[in-house]
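pinned: reference chain
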Amino acid sequence: MEVVLVTCALIFLDGKVLCAQRSDSMQLPGLWEFPGGKIEKDETPQECLVREIKEELSISIQVICPLKPNDHSYSIGKVIRLMPFVCIWQDGEINLLEHQSVEWVAKENLKSLEWAPADIPIVEDLFENWNIIQKQLVDKNTEL
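pinned: its structure tokens
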């Protein structure tokens, strides 16, 4: 069984999280996800995420902490291990290089989007732990 390690960023700004809609040129077009990508050889998950967000959205992020990963199989013999990380936006303006759109989404609107199947457990985890994550972000910002 092949396990593909993939990171995703839960990028927060002003109490909302950045959600990205997959473009028509991507697999699962039109579905929503947290942006990120595959970990390359000799790359840490955090390094991957910083690189992927720069490549996909043209912005810089700071990785704060990991959340619970999720294994999902889209095809027989292959599992995607999606590794989410709480992040904050550092700088840059969003430029959509892969996705068709992005939205800053509040907790109460998270479940209204049509999510890619691998992201659904991460959405559930985020929804359940939203207040804890927000507190960590506030605490982290006071340290910065």
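why pinned: The first helix runs from residue 45 to 57. Residues 2-143 form a domain with the Nucleoside Triphosphate Pyrophosphohydrolase fold (CATH 3.90.79.10).
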